[in-house]
Specification:
The protein contains ten helices and four strands. A hairpin with a 2-residue loop joins strand 1 and strand 2. The relative contact order is 0.13. Strands 1-2 form a two-stranded antiparallel sheet. With 216 residues, the protein is mainly alpha-helical. The radius of gyration is 17 Å and the shape is globular. The structure holds fe (ii) ion. Fe (ii) ion binds next to loops.
Length: 216
């Protein structure tokens, strides 16, 4: 696989954080840790590669505040650096379930750029790493991990619905359940802080019984 080393990948993210600071940087780090935690339980996957790919999936945000155009920016940057497999997930994490032309509501690039992404997606066959990064992207916020369905609602409230929203939601949920059946356990069991981040509660002990307490 043509990807940078973990040290190189972390240096790219650090540089990008200087160029365009924001919660997206921590979101990328959480996604990377989740990808590693999941992939290391699947013998057919390379956990280190999963970590690096997830760490760089939003690297296009180095260019500034863009919507879906960040996918193309990331692709172009990673290609220029000589890492086509890292470039690939910059695109696939946005368009795995829906072809680019079906999401024009959120498209902030030119028609030619959209056409390029469409042709690119038609030229590839989806793989395990595309799906894993999509999953980790969808359960990682800038503050930690949360329930997929909650993140879907939060993102929709922020950006609104688009033509293929329901199709995409079903695709995210299917990706999630597919990985859980391969793992034989809940993805959330592998990640810390899901209850806290999803419900605003923290776990604790009370009279010897595990309980959850509302965060202040
Ligand atoms: Fe992301």
């Amino acid at each position: 696989m043509q990807i940078p080393t973990r040290i190189q990948a972390e240096a790219y993210l650090e540089e990008a954080a200087q160029m365009n600071p924001g919660l997206w940087v921590e979101h990328s780090r959480y996604a990377a840790k989740a990808a590693h935690a999941i992939a290391q339980r699947l013998p057919e996957m390379d956990a280190e590669a999963a970590y690096i790919l997830a760490l760089l999936h939003d690297i296009g945000r180095r260019e500034g505040m863009f919507n879906l155009l960040h996918c193309l920016h990331g692709y172009q940057f990673m290609q220029t650096e000589g890492f086509p497999d890292a470039a690939r997930v910059c695109v696939t994490h946005c368009f795995l379930s829906t072809m680019p032309n079906q999401r024009q509501l959120h498209w902030d690039g030119t028609a030619n750029e959209l056409e390029f992404l469409q042709e690119y997606m038609q030229s590839i066959t989806q793989n395990d790493y595309d799906h894993l990064v999509l999953l980790c992207d969808s359960i990682s916020t800038g503050n930690g991990y949360c329930l997929l369905e909650k993140r879907i609602v939060d993102v929709t409230l922020r950006y609104g619905l688009y033509e293929n929203s329901l199709h995409d939601w079903r695709s995210y949920i299917k990706t999630h359940t597919d990985f859980e059946s391969r793992l034989g356990c809940s993805v959330y069991a592998l990640l810390p802080g899901v209850v806290e981040n999803t419900f605003g509660f923290e776990t604790g002990e009370n009279d010897g019984r595990k309980c959850i307490q509302k965060l202040p």
